[in-house]
Amino acid sequence: MFKNSLVALVTVLAMAGCASKGAHNAQDTNPSAAGNSSSAGAGYGSDGQPVQIGDQNAAAQGEGLFDTSSKANVIYFALDSSDLDSAGLAIADKFAKYLTANPITKVRIEGNTDERGTREYNVSLGERRANAVLAALRTKGVSANQLNVVSYGEERPAAQGHDESAWSQNRRAVIVRQ
Amino acid sequence: MRNKFFSVLALLMISSAAHADLDVVVTGIDTAATPIAIVPFAGLGAKDVDMSQVIDADLGRTGQFRTLSRGSMPEQPSDPAGLHQASWRSANTDYVVMGQARRDPATGNVSVRFYLVDTLRGAQLLAYDMPAASPGQLRYVSHQIADLVYEKLTGIKGAFTTKIAYVTANGLGNARRFELVVADADGYSPRAMAVSREPLMSPSWSPDRKQLAYVGYERGRTAIYIHTLASGQVRKLVSEKGINGSPAWSPDGKSMAAVLSFETNPDIYVFNVATGSRRRLTDHYGIDTEPSWAPDGQSLIFTSDRGGQPQIYQLPIDGGDAKRVTFVGKQNLRASYSPDGKSLVVVNYDDGRYRIALLDLASGSMKIISDGPLDESPSFAPNGMVVIYATQGRQGAELATSSIDGRTRQRMRQPGDVREPAWSPQIR
To answer: Of A28, A104, B68, B239, which is most buried by a Cβ count within 10 Å?
Structure first.
């Protein structure tokens, strides 16, 4: 919540800069508007209210997006694949909306694999998955400096078993707030 | 800038944790192996290390010896004068190791004298007085005796006084703890060298075995650390964005191959260990990882999926074209050379199983030496006669050894997950 408030504050300050400039430019043609602006405490929009930039619905969804218990932040992959399926793309879409609306929020994309194969090779495979998620977010307009990537390979399994039901839960990328 | 020295890192602490005892299981004794008996040493107390048992296990693990159980021994002499050749011939035992311990009442130190006798020829092959040792050193003295016996009978230097490094993981979620452990080659006397809540990976010994390089994670960032065992000093060699992985010390100890991904994707780099400077060896859009040095230091082998599936490639250290080395099996990963340079040990994937295999470089033939299905991280003993690797046991990942003919296997069980064994070099 703190970060969202901060975004709103930054937005207000940015608007304040624009509005006062606008008021100054408009002074000759519409001096009364400048007077209103001044009496409202300088820098608000024409109706005197702060205007928030970006998709507020996406911003409001932000807290749920990072909810690990609901796995809303987990993108799963098929065996030997780093392609996002439709479910993965839908999750990337939600995060892209949130992150473009909240440009100071930074996330870490954690790539993971199942236990098959060697450990260091799996670190590379996990990075490939995390980078696929990064690419999807970048394509949807998220700034590169909001995104970090780390691969844990097979070192952090979500499920402990040695069968496909466990493996399918472990082939994943997790998006966490940084 | 990147080569700062750290005395102790926040999450990488030096400690000496106590571990539960190993449960050692040997399977598949080779009937063609040399029959030998290690008679219980005279003069040891009930609290002392059972020295002949340690020697017995060392020799048995190689697959080259078939040891006689104590119950089947016709007699238990402590010197050659008490040995009756005919009795041992009847027990089909070609060699007998026997000995006696004497305790200095003033210091408590123990002096051990041992003999190796050839029962066929009635010849005394070895007779040694070992240096006086404290009771706590008797396990090491036992390994020294095993080395002497092994070298006398095979002509090959023993590797029983060497060490293994490995990684353990215990607990789940926030309680998960990773430890980098150094133990005797038979898995006993483990000491935790580093502890972390985040993964520790890929231990690699320096050729003088005074330092270990390994990979650590700290708050979502990885680094390659060099840990000096005697002092506990930890140096961060590199921590770029992305992967910092697969450290592999060169045979002369001056260079280290490693994997970095910050420039494009995982590629092989070679570091000057002293200065930290580096150069890039591969530049390919595929994954290049798990480098390992040829014994002459002139080339590297590594895993790459540039052909679609991961296979082993070889690259001259001064550059040039990478040449594919493995062709048998759907995948081959994490190769390393045998000490004589004539074969590679690899993780071979075929028929849905990851197994340890030896590739004979001259003939190209691949010999599977483990059962799988999830075996990994093979590492040669410094004498090239045994391979240690990680396998999936009933209670989690555990270490196992296999003789290079694949006939003799041993498992070393411990609580928690035990993985990534790295066999230390011999002290020259």
So the answer is: B68
